[in-house]
Design a protein that fits this description.
single chain; 308 residues; alpha/beta; eight-stranded parallel beta sheet; 39% helix; globular
């Protein structure tokens, strides 16, 4: 079985102004690198559908969804926060990004593909139940996860987040949902400035000091994530795949390299093979310098699709 590659041209039409790091060129850089490496030959392309209000409201309040819809500008920009803007195409792109996670869920659970990579933007993991922030409007993985739980009937789903910034939105949405185990690693002292809350039965969030590097990252995965995942026995694994912890990306300072993203994906694939028939849905989050983003995403996808 081949893997799914889910994207849509609408995701490129969203932009937040000249010089903004979350730029449309991110998707082209990833697709070009996957093409050069021949990995798209092992993937089935799918267009991301538009997420419906019903699907979005499983992760967000109806008020939040209505606010995003009503604030979509006909021209120019609507400013959500100092770093997060809507242009006339943002709403459509955000619906596509969330819809990709829903479609990926169905494709994987229906055994039409082995796994899925959603090359979409805007990202999602900072979007909370009732708030957009941090370049994010709808929480893409959260919409997909709630579809898996509430519509497809799964009982245990894991969410892995290795973006350099903590997925505060995902934690906000799932903190009281014992059907979801969230495991994240992030750099301390960065936006959104999370508190160190320690581990619970459903939250394994590890903040690493600046300049920790690959050794500390791998130790955190081995010591904290893997035991929790094996005890939880997820039926499906979602990945918030942010690549801004790369040492060439100036949005963070964890100093990871492509080999670290390859290694962590190998660990997650092994967990998926032990517990959920290898089923993984990965959604793009951060990564803002085009070359390391493309190289890191390719290292991740190579393992995800079994081409390593």
């Amino acid at each position: 079985m081949l893997a799914a590659y889910i994207t849509h041209p609408d995701c490129v039409r969203h932009e937040m102004g000249p010089g903004h790091p979350e730029c449309p060129e991110r998707l082209g850089a990833i697709q070009d690198q996957l093409l050069i490496k021949g990995l798209l030959d092992y993937m089935v392309p799918y267009d991301a559908p538009l997420a419906t209000d019903e699907q979005l409201c499983r992760a967000h309040s109806a008020l939040h969804v209505r606010r995003i819809v009503d604030n979509a500008p006909a021209e120019g920009y609507h400013h959500v926060d100092p770093d997060t803007n809507m242009n006339p195409f943002t709403l459509q792109a955000a619906r596509r990004a969330a819809g990709a996670a829903v479609h990926a869920t169905d494709l994987v659970l229906d055994s039409k593909v082995s796994s899925a990579f959603c090359a979409v933007r805007p990202p999602g993991h900072h979007a909370e139940h009732d708030a957009a922030m941090g370049f994010c409007f709808f929480n893409n993985v959260a919409v997909g996860i709630r579809h898996a739980l509430d519509v497809r009937g799964l009982e245990r789903v894991a969410l892995i987040d290795f973006d350099v910034h903590h997925g505060n939105g995902s934690e906000n949405i799932f903190k009281d949902d014992d059907r979801v185990l969230m495991c994240s690693i992030f750099e301390r002292g960065l936006y959104p400035f999370p508190e160190e809350t320690g581990h619970t039965t459903t939250m394994v969030n590890v903040g690493l000091p600046t300049r920790s590097g690959g050794k500390e990252f791998r130790e955190a995965v081995t010591q904290h994530w893997i035991p929790a995942l094996d005890a939880f026995r997820p039926q499906l694994i979602y990945i918030s795949a942010g690549f801004d912890a790369h040492r060439e990306d100036d949005m963070g300072n964890l100093a990871l390299v492509e080999a670290d993203y390859e290694w962590v994906t190998q660990q997650l694939v092994a967990v998926a093979q032990r517990h959920c028939q290898g089923r993984i849905v990965s959604c793009l989050e951060g990564g803002y310098v085009l070359s390391p983003l493309a190289r890191s995403a390719t290292a991740h996808v190579k393992v995800l699709i079994g081409a390593d």
